[in-house]
Amino acid sequence: MWFNPIMTWLLRSPLHGFISSNTMLMTYTGRKSGKTFTTPMNYLRMQDDEGEYLLTTSTRERTWWRNLRGGASVTLRLQGKDLPTRAEAIEDEPAVAAELGAFFKQAPKMAKYFDVRLDADGKPEKDDLMKAAQARVVVRSALG
């Protein structure tokens, strides 16, 4: 994307505070090429029984997340600091739906960008959630 170099520069600069509350850089190694790639992406800080993690999503058509199948070492540039950690792409549709459900519970305004309607209680409509899970993958990045 044409703006990725701009976002990368900004997130590495002292001005990162303008966007780093929800945008980070992920540096990972290509499985086949062995090349290092750095990609800016939005994230949401999450918590579950296993601890705190960052969640990001991608459409299945994109290919960058395939480098994280089965888990991979990555470096996150998070709020001005580099954090070596592990990230994993989740492709299984029920697991993606569960992660998206948790995502929308924490950030309900995001549901509209995924074409997911929320019911009167703020819960995602199951059919919409499953449809979104067919089109998306989620990436979990461990924190701590």
Kindly summarize this structure in a few lines.
This protein is of the alpha+beta class. It is 23% helix and 36% strand.
Structure description:
By secondary structure, the protein is an alpha+beta fold. The chain has one domain (4-142): Pnp Oxidase, Chain A. It is built from three helices and seven strands. A seven-stranded antiparallel beta sheet has the order 2-1-5-6-7-4-3. β3 (44-48) and β4 (51-59) form a beta hairpin. α2 crosses α3. The radius of gyration is 15 Å and the shape is globular.
Number of domains: 1
Gross morphology: globular
**What letter string, H or E per element, gives the SSE order?**
HEEEEEEHHE
> What's the helical proportion of residues?
10-25%
Key structural traits:
144 residues, alpha+beta, Pnp Oxidase, Chain A
Could you give the topology of this structure?
Elements: H1 4-12, E1 23-29, E2 36-42, E3 44-48, E4 51-59, E5 72-78, E6 81-90, H2 93-106, H3 126-135, E7 136-142
Antiparallel strand pairs: 1-2, 1-5, 3-4, 4-7, 5-6, 6-7
Helix pairs in contact: 2-3
